[in-house]
Amino acid sequence: FEMQRDLVSFPLSPAVRVKLVSAGFQTAEELLEVKPSELSKVCSWQ
Questions:
Q1: From CA 15, how far away is CA 25, in angstroms rounded?
Q2: 16: left (phi > 0), else alpha (psi -120 to 50), else beta?
Q3: How far is Cα 43 from Cα 1, in angstroms, rounded to an integer?
Q4: 26 lies in some domain
Q5: Beta bridge partners of 27
Q6: Is 36 a member of any domain?
Q7: What's the number of domains the chain is made of?
Q8: Is 46 part of any domain?
Q9: What residues contact 14, with CB distance under 8 A and at least 6 apart?
Q10: Helices (H) and strands (E) in the chain — how many of each?
Q11: What's the pLDDT tens digit per position in 4-29?
Q12: Which of 11, 12, 19, 29 could form a disulfide with 3 if both were Cys (CB 3.0 to 4.6 A apart)?
């Protein structure tokens, strides 16, 4: 599994992808250090 893989290459919904990129995430590796509770807050932004 390539952790430097860009988030845009994952089968994420466009809404989730936009939220993650807007929060400053670009690769899967960057998400490894984020707690699930923090990630859910990012993805629940309106």
A1: 14
A2: alpha
A3: 23
A4: yes
A5: 6
A6: yes
A7: 1
A8: no
A9: none
A10: 3, 0
A11: 889 888 898 898 888 899 999 999 88
A12: 29
